[in-house]
Write a structure and sequence with these properties.
heterotrimer, A mainly alpha (296), B alpha/beta (654), C alpha/beta (265), B: 654 residues, alpha/beta, Rossmann fold, 26 helices, 10 strands, 54% helix, disordered N terminus, C: 265 residues, four-stranded antiparallel β-sheet, globular
Chain lengths: 296, 654, 265
């Protein structure tokens, strides 16, 4: 029973972690706490799925499920690019709270757009994400998406880590993260790093959405609610640490499944997450793995 | 001792400024529009118009938190719900609506205060995240426990005289009006000034005698109470809430959007934004299938608003007003942004009045030594910013604090202000300051300025002077809010003192200007005026010449002497540019890497090899020529001649 | 030594500040090819502001900066009469950013040494060579840097934030040289260093100047800088109050002392 819950919790936590990594990447790269990541992911997913069924707008091209995954990722990356270039870049020097409000406005617009552009009818779930098929892992029944989440997390975070540590642009990214002013003094094109953070952030948000967004109905702000759990994980782990985001989210995932099973139910899970977040913020604002600057 | 405020201070003041006519006409039109709103559209629209009133009320309360206090709360939607559920529960128990309303206001204020508790320890973004967590938690709680929402009860019922939706609209409008008055009232009271100081200069608000923690909680309680009022109004409209959508995360985000689009601290702008966000899309003119599109447009407008026009709807109202005024009355006269030269006689009498502070006699008794610092050490991690520093400041002296970058000069000021971790002892007029909360300093007679201007740039000059005297206006928040401030002697006193100080520094003509619009040099003068208005005995001036033009900097010495001679103040002055103060200081301390390396008269100190080395670098001594010795001798003579303090003091030092 | 050789960096009548706060009131100075120039001033004189404006971290209020004869900030008197093309009037004026200047051969060693604290010594140097495209040149530069600063080779894997002040200064200088600059602006190399370390740092700067012919603008409070300088300026309250060249530079101490501590003359 406990093992079952643990496995389910870890799988859930992995999905949160993907979104959390997106948040952390944008936060460390641009010092913006973005609450729009969830909706960027959801919007891309719904758009790609809608176009799969109705044909690409203007072109009318219909495609299958594998292509849909690719289209969703492209849409997510493109949204990251547009948001950075046209909304966040002009705000670069503004106060952190202003930037947060800007991402909040983006989240709001996207959620409302989803409602308006995409159908309310239960949308047809693409095959790999169809619910109802369960896989048994040590007694825990997992959907295919839940089963996929941990390996996907491992691959994405692993390749991101390799990119950041092994390539020249990765080095520039880390230099910018460490101190954008100094990086610029050394010739790093900091704006490109900002762009990179948002594009990859958008991409990760889509992957997270593919694994978590409800595939049978469209619930706006569902992703933002989920984002809160990811954010909780990222804060517990330390907002500027990839490791922290992953570990924090796994903790949140396990805690939330363990409490889900109790009579306290959903509110109990959110209650315990609230408590975890508050305790972290009050006792160790930088989180488990964060640098002192993570105490934003 | 309140001054006689009956003395006519502004002879022949115009009864009404003709330029405010445009403003009053605009406000009247706006009120008429609100009153006639039920006449437009169908009767079914009234439900949404009533919802709009509740939303506007909650948003106005939220603006006190976001716009005034700088706390981004993302759970105002949930608090709206808390107010609604409370009213439903209390109403279901059989209480009449006024009781239900009061209960909702009180309980929501309490919940909001709890939400605000983390803000005592964390800041900015972290507070936003914590409130986001509260939002999710509160809504989760209400969806798991339907009994909280009052499901299965009768709910709250409208009395007969409010049955019609149209009447209910006017009923709600009364509450909206009350909220607007309350929010406006807050600006001219001590509480409002406390909120702004928390927003803009939080860590420095202690030097105005403001404890930032209670101020924040008060702001949360206030915003929560207003959210409770909005919730209760909504509850009475609907009876029992059947879903939580008006209270969910989306609602919270929309509330933030309303305050941002409305424009911080503009009630009219916020009411307009609330109308468009909460009601407009649902009105019968808008086809149902287009209603979300309208909302999308507003959300995009929010993005645009942040990018291009941060002042929001309220800002465009102000611009419109200014344009109309310009059209009707011609361009507004701009006062000269520089201080005027002041009348010496008036200065003397003002100085007398400003020196009368409502301070217990015990704290006004003359002492020869004002400040004694003994073995003051400040340690930040591995860095010792101040190392066993010992100094003394006597009444009537101008004491200079000099030293190279990072010598620990400002650290000493921070230690005195209670903003640095200190060991050792700092005694101000017999009272130990180490370990005492920062906010008590102004009461004891200590005021300071900051290297980079520690006032609120977004407020007017006069408001800043009132803020600086926060310790003197000690009345509780409630009577101030209820509009009784004109009857409060404290408030009258600080306003009078502010006027005196402005006159003394030649700033009267600038009192209604926004501080941030003034040249930097004038801002620094306002800062000194503000510090003086708070009635100090000892004034700490940090980097007084920073940001002054070279000409202004050269007159600095005269200003210091004037502060001492006319106001009887004692000064401690930090100055990078030593020559500026060498002429006026009676005594001088030189710091290097946190340690005292020399003290004495300015001439003695600047002649000491260690001081020269500290400023010029090692090895500079060997190469110094005879020429400098001669020059230094000249300086000694100058200093003694120019020093208004007699030699006896110097002898006593030795 | 008389007039500067070929002027490399020309700052003309530069005014700048932070928002409403004007700090510089018309600073004019020149650094010639391969020269060491000292800009002396006490705290708050506007030294760092001068540098930050030159590299484009702060917008200039007026005045101009030219690098190698090419105007990078503002307009210069000489080029003012040439009418700008019609098109350029409608295009947004692109502000110069520090990273552009690095590619043009100007690099700033910022006040407080600007360590990328979370990165290792080697990674810091690597970022310093970011603008150098050729990998063989990067290898050469690494070799040269480790040769000049053996301590950095020893600690190449250590995190920069954990180095001592003197080592950080070495790293900051070494890192700046990795960009193959024509001119290096050094902001208070002596800050927080012991007298012995200060002298070492200055000697290293002189060596680097001799061996790789990099021009250096030393912005200093410490008079030791005068020992290396070919030319010196004294900055006081945002204005240049004294200039000296050649032999006169050494005798500027008295003037400096007056500027810092006052002489009542």
């Amino acid at each position: 029973m406990f093992l079952e819950e643990l496995i389910r919790g870890l799988s859930l936590g992995s999905a949160y972690a993907l979104l959390a990594v997106a948040v952390v990447l944008v936060f460390t790269g641009t010092r913006t706490l973005s609450v729009a990541m969830g909706e960027i992911g959801a919007f891309s997913f719904y758009a790609a799925n809608d176009w799969r069924l109705d044909g690409l707008p203007l072109v009318g091209w219909r495609y299958g499920v594998p292509t849909m995954l690719l289209v969703a990722c492209l849409v997510g990356a493109a949204m990251g690019l547009l948001i950075e270039r046209f909304i966040m870049r002009p705000l670069v020097a503004r106060a952190p709270l202003d930037k947060l409000i800007a991402t909040l406005a983006i989240a709001l617009s996207l959620a409302l757009l989803e409602l308006n552009l995409f159908s309310f009818d239960p949308i047809q779930a693409p095959v790999p994400f169809a619910q109802g098929t369960f896989y048994d892992v040590f007694g825990a029944e997992l959907t295919s998406a839940q089963l996929l989440a941990p390996p996907v997390l491992l691959v994405t975070v692993g390749s991101l880590y390799a990119f950041l540590t092994k390539t020249k642009f990765g080095l520039a990214t880390r230099a910018t993260t460490s101190d954008p002013d100094v990086a610029r003094l050394l010739g790093v094109k900091v704006n490109r790093v900002y762009l990179f953070a948002w594009v990859v952030g958008g991409l990760l948000a889509v992957i997270a959405a593919l694994l978590t967004a409800p595939a049978t109905s469209l619930i706006p702000f569902n992703q933002t609610t989920l984002l809160l759990r990811s954010l909780a994980g990222a804060i517990i782990g330390g907002l500027d640490s990839l490791t922290g985001a992953v570990v924090g989210c796994l903790i949140v995932g396990v805690v939330s499944t363990l409490f889900q099973a109790t009579p306290l139910s959903f509110a109990g899970a959110d209650g315990s997450i609230l408590l975890l977040v508050l305790v972290t913020l009050l006792v160790r604002p930088r989180g488990l793995f964060g640098s002192p600057r993570a105490a934003f | 001792m309140p001054p006689s405020s009956r003395r006519p201070r502004q002879p022949g003041a115009p009864a009404i400024d003709k330029r405010s006519i445009v403003r009053y006409v605009g406000i009247t039109l706006f009120i008429l529009l609100l009153l006639s709103l039920p006449q437009f559209g169908t009767g079914a629209d009234l439900i949404y118009k009533n919802l709009f009133l509740s939303t506007a009320i909650v948003a106005l309360g939220l603006d006190v938190l976001i716009g005034r206090t700088g706390q981004l709360s993302l759970c105002q939607g949930a608090l709206f719900g808390v107010g609604c559920f409370t009213a439903v529960q209390v109403g279901a128990a059989g209480a009449p609506w006024p009781v239900a309303f009061l209960a909702a206001v009180a309980f929501t204020a309490l919940v909001s205060t709890i939400v605000g508790l983390p803000s005592l320890r964390i800041r900015g973004l972290q507070v936003a995240v914590a409130t986001l967590a509260f939002q999710i938690f509160l809504i989760s709680l209400s969806s798991t426990k339907p009994e909280i929402k009052g499901i299965g009860t009768e709910g709250i019922t409208r009395p007969e005289y409010l049955e019609s939706d149209q009447r209910y609209y006017y009923f709600g409008l009364v509450f909206l009006g009350l909220t607007v008055l309350l929010v406006h009232r807050i600006r001219s009271t001590r509480s409002g000034r406390m909120f702004v100081s928390v927003r803009d200069v939080e860590e420095r608000s202690g030097s105005f005698g403001i404890a930032s923690g209670p101020a924040k909680l008060l702001a949360y309680a206030f915003a929560g109470g207003i959210a409770g009022l909005g919730g209760a109004l909504y509850a009475l409209q609907i009876g029992t809430p059947n879903d939580v959508s008006p209270f969910n995360l989306q609602a919270s985000l929309i509330l933030v959007a309303i305050t941002v689009i409305g424009g911080a601290m503009s009630s009219m702008g916020i009411i307009v934004a609330a109308f468009f966000f909460s009601a407009f899309a649902s009105l019968s003119y808008i086809p149902t299938d287009k209603s979300t599109l309208v909302q999308v447009l507003f959300a995009l407008l929010l993005v645009l608003n942040i990018l291009v026009y941060p002042r929001g709807v309220g800002g465009s109202f102000t611009d419109l007003k200014d344009q109309l005024n310009k059209l009707v009355f011609g361009p507004a006269p701009r006062p000269s942004p520089r201080p005027e030269t002041t009348d010496a006689v008036a200065a003397a009498s003002n100085a007398m009045a400003l020196r009368k502070t409502p301070r217990p006699l015990r704290e006004r008794l003359p002492t020869s030594t004002l400040l004694v610092a003994t073995d003051v050490t400040v340690q930040y991690g591995g860095v010792r910013a101040l190392d066993h520093f010992t100094a003394e400041v006597r009444r009537g002296e101008i004491v200079g604090l000099i030293g190279a970058n990072g010598a620990g000069k400002s650290t000493f000021f921070n230690a005195v202000s209670g903003l640095a971790p200190v060991t050792g002892s700092i005694v101000f007029r017999g009272q130990e300051l180490v370990g005492a909360p920062p906010a008590i300093r102004s009461r004891l007679g200590l005021a300071r300025t900051w290297q980079d201007m520690g006032l609120v740039r977004a407020d007017t000059v006069r408001d800043n002077l009132l803020l600086a005297q926060a310790w003197m206006a000690r009345y509780p928040a409630a009577p101030g809010l209820l509009g009784l401030f004109s009857a409060l002697p404290d408030e009258r006193l600080v306003r009078h003192r502010a006027d005196l100080a402005l006159e003394l520094f030649g700033l009267s003509h600038l009192k209604d200007e926004r501080l941030g619009d003034l040249p930097y040099g004038t801002m620094r003068t306002v800062e000194i005026a503000a510090a003086v208005s708070s009635g100090p005995d000892l004034l700490l001036l940090d980097e007084a010449s920073a940001g002054l033009t070279p000409e202004e900097a050269h007159q600095l010495g005269d200003r210091f002497s004037a502060l001492r001679d006319e106001l009887g103040l004692t000064l401690v002055v930090i100055e990078h540019h030593v020559p500026l103060i060498a002429g006026v200081c009676d005594y001088c301390y030189c710091l290097e890497s946190g340690a005292l390396i020399a003290e004495g008269t300015p001439a003695e100190v600047t002649a000491q090899p260690r001081v020269v080395e500290s400023f010029l670098g090692k090895g500079s001594i060997d190469r110094s020529t005879d020429h400098h010795v001669v020059v230094t001798d000249d300086l000694v003579d100058d200093a003694v001649e120019g020093s208004p303090v007699d030699d006896g003091l110097e002898v006593a030092r030795a | 030594m008389t007039a500067p050789l070929t002027p490399l960096l020309e700052v003309h009548d530069l005014c700048s500040g932070y928002g409403k706060l004007q700090v510089l009131f018309g600073v004019t100075l020149t650094v010639g090819e391969g020269e060491i120039v000292a800009l002396m001033g006490s705290n708050g004189a506007g030294k760092t502001t001068t540098l930050r404006t030159i590299v484009g971290q702060l917008p200039a209020m007026s005045g101009s900066v030219a690098l190698g004869g090419k105007v990078v900030i503002g307009r210069q008197g000489a080029t003012e009469d040439t009418t700008p093309s019609l098109l350029s009037r409608f295009l947004p004026k692109k502000a110069v950013t520090p990273d552009d200047l690095v590619t043009q051969g100007l690099v700033l060693v910022p006040e407080g040494r600007g360590m990328l604290r979370d990165l290792s010594v080697e990674e810091n140097l690597d970022v310093g060579a970011y603008t150098n495209k050729s990998s063989s040149r990067r290898k050469e530069l690494f070799a040269r840097t480790y040769d000049t600063f053996p301590i950095l080779a020893e600690r190449r894997k250590q995190r920069a934030g954990t180095l001592s002040g003197g080592q950080q200064q070495m790293l900051a200088l070494g890192r700046a040289l990795m960009a193959d600059p024509r001119i290096m602006l050094v902001d208070e190399a002596s800050l927080g260093l012991s007298p012995v370390m200060t002298e070492t740092a200055f000697n290293l700067i002189a060596d680097v100047n001799r061996t790789s012919h990099v021009a250096v603008l030393l912005v200093e409070q410490n008079v030791l800088a005068l020992d290396l300088a070919d030319r010196a300026y004294v900055l006081e309250k945002g204005q240049i109050v004294a200039t000296a060249e050649g032999q006169e530079v050494r005798s500027m101490q008295g003037r400096l002392r007056e500027a810092y501590l006052g002489a009542g003359a």
